[in-house]
Structures are given as structure tokens and as C-alpha cells.
Amino acid sequence: MDAVTAWLDRFDAFTQDPQAMQLGFAALLGLAVFALMVALMLLVIGLSDPLRRRLQHLEASAGTAAGNGMAEAGGVVQWLGPMGEKLVPGKEEVRSRIATELRHAGKRSPSAVSLFYGIRLLLAVVPPLLLLLLLPLVRIPSAIAILLVIFVAIFGYLLPRFWLERAIKRRTTLLRRGLPDALDLLVVCSEAGLGLGAAIQRVARDLEVSHPELADELHLFGMQTRAGMDNKTALRDLEERTGVEDIRGLVTTLLQSMRFGTSIAMTLRLFAVELRDKRTQEAEEKAAKVSTKMLFPLIFCVFPSFFVVALGPPLLGAAAALAGR
Q: How far is CA 137 from the centre of its chain?
């Protein structure tokens, strides 16, 4: 009863405040407009069409079966995917760039682009509306409330972009870490007499536990070659799909070896040596930068405390002696 009484008191205070009433009315009006827009959008795109729903379910099942890691629940895809299709940019360059970045992040589903923009719309609209509904319960000035709502909307719109850049960076790092082990295994398999396709499939099976991201890319390469794609096209797709500089160099080296008819095993061994030298140089470069990076913590954090401990007692003694004199 105390909670109900407190809630009724808040509601009475809210109804007596003109600014709070205006803000609440604006929030309800915005919610109504948003619900109307969603209803019209769902009506236009024909979400209730059973054929369209069946096709979207098959696409989601195919993306899950491919193991691309896309967290696509059926209901979320059926709702956010069609909403995002209306927000996808009309320029082919922009769509291609977003699709390429999503592939670099490991999202290879056909509906990845539309789902990305659907999530953007969801995060840009729903949190501000929830904030508008909660603001009448908190007494803050209207100007600050409007700025807060705008900030939440902008942050929700930019959040998927930040996540995409972070996902690309993380996946690139994981692929680069697994490439030296994959090269060593490829050299062993090639020198044992296996062809390039069979060697890559064998390496993909061996790397499933230690480097699952790289193993997934190599498995996809094997499926493409088994489906009839030639090795050169599959290697080019591997290069574009990952976007890793080291893998791009490996693909270029293998294509040159196929073009000139040189030994693939020797080519892989030479590239592995070059990759080790490159990694050693990167490690030496980072080690050389450590002294410069440690300069600022030493000056602003370590030296002041050292001076206080080392020179504090003599200074206090000198101050006491001067005061006594």
C-alpha cells in the first residue's frame, strides 16, 4: 500500500506540473507516431505474407548451418530484416562497402546488411522512447531532457558501427595469430604429397580447436572447391572475405606459384620464413617503442612519489631547523 500511495503522490505531482505534462504528452505522441510508422511499414513490406516468411526462415537456417556466427533468431530476423531493407543506402558503393565490412567481421548471411540497418533503427528509436517514458518520473529541466534524448538516439545509431569496427579488429587479430600455425601445417602437408585443396582441408580440420576462425575460413574454401570453383577464384574470395594483409600476401604468393608452375611446398616454406621475419621485426619495433611509452608514466607517476619519499624527510628537517632558529 505504501508503494501504491507513493506512486499516486508522484502521479498527482506529475499532473500538476505543466512542463512534465507537456513532456509526457510529447512522449506518448512520439510513441503513437512510432507505432503507426511500424504498422505502416509492416503493412507495406507484406510481413504477413507466408511465402516471404518462409523464404526468410530458409535464409536464417542457411546462415546458421554455414556456421558464420550470426546470432539471428527467426523472429528477430523477420522483424528487423524487413525494416532494415528500407534503410539500406541506394548507392551500390555504400552497400558493397558495408557488406564487405560485415564479411570481414564474419557475418556472411544474405540478410546481414538489412539486419545491420534494422538494428541501427531499433537502437536509435526504442531507447529514446523508453527514456521519454521514464523522464516524467524524474524532475530534470526540459532542455536537459531533450539533450539527453538526442544524445541517446545518436549513441544508439552509432553503436552498431562501433561494434562492427571492434568485431573486424578482433577477427583480424585472431586470423593473424592463427596464420603461422596454418602455414607450418600447410608446408608439412604439401611436402607429404597432398595437393593445395586437400592440404587446406586437412589444416582446417586440425585448427578447429586452436584457431576456429581461421579453420572456418579454410573450411569455406574447401566447400567452394568441392562445389566446382577453381582454386584461383576460391583464393581470391578468401582474400576478399578476410581482409587480412598477411592472407592477402599468401594468396598473391600462391597465385604466382600457380601461374609460373613453381613448387607450392617451396613457395609456402619461403612465405613462412618471410612471415616469421615480419613478425620478428614487428616485435622488435614494439620493444623499441616501450622506452618512449614508459617515459610519461615515469615522469608523471613514479618520479613525484620518489621525490616525496626521498626528499620529504630532509626538507621537513630543514624546515623545522629554520623554524627553530
A: 35
